[in-house]
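Hey, I was hoping to borrow your eyes for a little while. I've dropped the whole record in just underneath, so have a look:

——
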Amino acid sequence: MAEMEIDTSEVKAKYRFDEQKLDGYLSTHLPDFSSRPGEALTVRQYRAGTSNAMFSLEKGPNKCVLRKEACDPVVPGVNSIERIYEVQKALFDAGFPVPKTLLYCNDVTVIGTEFYVMAHVEGRIFRNVLLDNVSPAERKAMFVALIETLSRLHSYDIHKLNLTGHGKGKGFCQREVTTWKKLYDRVAHTDVPEMSQLADWLMNNLPSNDNEECLVHGDFRIDNLIFHPTEARVIAVLDWELSTIGNPMSDLAYFLIIYFWPHEEPIFGGDKLIRFIEGAPPLEDMMSIYSQGRGVDSPVRDWNFFLALSCFKIAGLSQAIHSRFLLGNSSDEHTIIFANMVKPLAEKALSLVKRL
């Protein structure tokens, strides 16, 4: 995954496994990885990904990517490797842009956990979610491609995908509030009254109709997608750990929350949003493109709820990332950036629900 090459390092000590044993397994189950004279398996670990560890595998001209269970997942209980493999395989078979799955292994004696292998996708990944290193014209085209991809995802029939068991579906919003509140309460290291206020507001303002059942990505944002090397076209959507069956408006609001992000605060731990990016389509245009693609009404019902839920979710995830550092499961002391996002996000959510 082209731009991810700069994000690889030697395999960290706690994630190391028997590479020779893996090589033997791959040589047996993946013909392209059969041993040839002078070719050895090279394993590197991607720095990206806090839910499931991800590794670059290279052998001669062949490249692929391996995902295994994390030693310390940010959100326990959502990182089932088999579950992620199944949704990714179903989408690839349906023609949706995801990396092709190559194999799933439930034999924990190979590398210590279950894992799956997918094809390497050559393209561009933008760690800066503001896309400020492309021209305004290309940035606009990329935003349109992103919202069209999301609309396409939500247009799939989960029955035809054979993914009805991927989540509980109806009652999704209440489960989301409960899930993220439990996570936040477990990892919070300081009292933030605004988070409690926000949790109460969300629980008391659940959508009256929460029966829609779509495949929801759960973490749909710019740095979880691969663009074509030269075109403003999405060629792969990554990181399906948080995917489930539920209300698609949660994905839409989560993606578009950058239009409401607190100024001067880092976006997803990255650059600050001092002014919104030149060339990005207006919010109303993004909403219209999405609605037309799915053939649904615009504006979105309960839009303030879904925006507030997105802030609550991101705040919980941010606190969880910092908690890994506090527990000694991460050496990145810069995770304090994520902890410092919690209060501003909760404040922004509370201001949105009062204003909208």
